[in-house]
Amino acid sequence: MLRQIKTKFDEALASGAITFTNTTTSRISSEGVEFQIRLAPALVAKPASTLLSAATPSQLPKPNPFLPHDQKLFVSTIHGTHNLLLNKFCIVRDHILLTTREFQNQYNPLNVEDFTAILEIMKEMPDTMTFFNCGDKSGASVLHKHVQIIPVDKAGVPMNDLFSLLEITIPQGNPFVVPTLPFAHAAAFLPLSLSAVSANPIDISIHSSLITSLYRSALLESFRNAGFDYTPFINPPDPTVELPNPLPPSYNLVLTTRWMLIVPRRMEMWNGISVNSVGFAGMVFLKKQEDFEQVQQKGMMNLLKELTFPRHLESP
């Protein structure tokens, strides 16, 4: 699969179907995390968010980039339920999108079909991270349901350092609070590393169900930590027809092969700097040098606090 993605990426780049720009990377240490800060001028060309309160395909902003999708960006179909596409606006090589083949709304929680498709990719490509921007304050830009997957280096994402310290003492399969994260969230270690799951369809099905259940528990816990009850939104009506009213609150999901982190969102941006899920993995993509200087002065963890809710629950 990775070879197929790389080949398709090179073809799309050569044809001009994708916008890709190399970045300069700096590191800023904040609260024990070595954040990766990438200056990415290509983000200036990315269209603004089209998330609306609309719920049906006929009400979607036109055109929906995933329905129909651009064949030059199409990699493959996963389990008949999802399309694997290249990200049209990327600053990381081989950045891919996993979209539902039929319209579903980006505000709806991930389900077992979503996690089955995610697992299929991540078990073959363990040096990756999946993220889900859910809601208008999460950094999401398209209303059609999709998750994003990007390559990471062998050391993993910067936030791994915090999780590595907890892995010995925190049991797998239960939501918990990371002591040093100063905002409302919920985290969980996966029952089994995704890279260790066998290719047996039964094993994939079982593990996808376990991850879905864990995600739902962590999602509820993350909002409880923020002082809200997410229960009314956990089982939405038909996701192809309508959204609950009022709109579900926004959050970010980071999923690695070992752990997940869910963070409820209060705002999308601070001083014009938009942060999506990758910020909570310890990676931030900025458009301008002025943004970098602001982040350096503010401190990354303080910036994330501005975008999130105070913690209502203490760590174990």
TrEMBL record:
<feature type="active site" description="Nucleophile">
    <location>
        <position position="146"/>
    </location>
</feature>
<dbReference type="GO" id="GO:0003877">
    <property type="term" value="F:ATP:ADP adenylyltransferase activity"/>
</dbReference>
<dbReference type="InterPro" id="IPR043171">
    <property type="entry name" value="Ap4A_phos1/2-like"/>
</dbReference>
<dbReference type="Pfam" id="PF19327">
    <property type="entry name" value="Ap4A_phos_N"/>
</dbReference>
<dbReference type="Pfam" id="PF09830">
    <property type="entry name" value="ATP_transf"/>
</dbReference>
<dbReference type="GO" id="GO:0005524">
    <property type="term" value="F:ATP binding"/>
</dbReference>
<dbReference type="InterPro" id="IPR045759">
    <property type="entry name" value="Ap4A_phos1/2_N"/>
</dbReference>
<dbReference type="GO" id="GO:0009117">
    <property type="term" value="P:nucleotide metabolic process"/>
</dbReference>
<feature type="domain" description="Ap4A phosphorylase 1/2 N-terminal">
    <location>
        <begin position="3"/>
        <end position="162"/>
    </location>
</feature>
<dbReference type="InterPro" id="IPR009163">
    <property type="entry name" value="Ap4A_phos1/2"/>
</dbReference>
<dbReference type="InterPro" id="IPR036265">
    <property type="entry name" value="HIT-like_sf"/>
</dbReference>
<protein>
    <submittedName>
        <fullName>Uncharacterized protein</fullName>
    </submittedName>
</protein>
<feature type="domain" description="ATP adenylyltransferase C-terminal">
    <location>
        <begin position="179"/>
        <end position="310"/>
    </location>
</feature>
<dbReference type="InterPro" id="IPR019200">
    <property type="entry name" value="ATP_adenylylTrfase_C"/>
</dbReference>
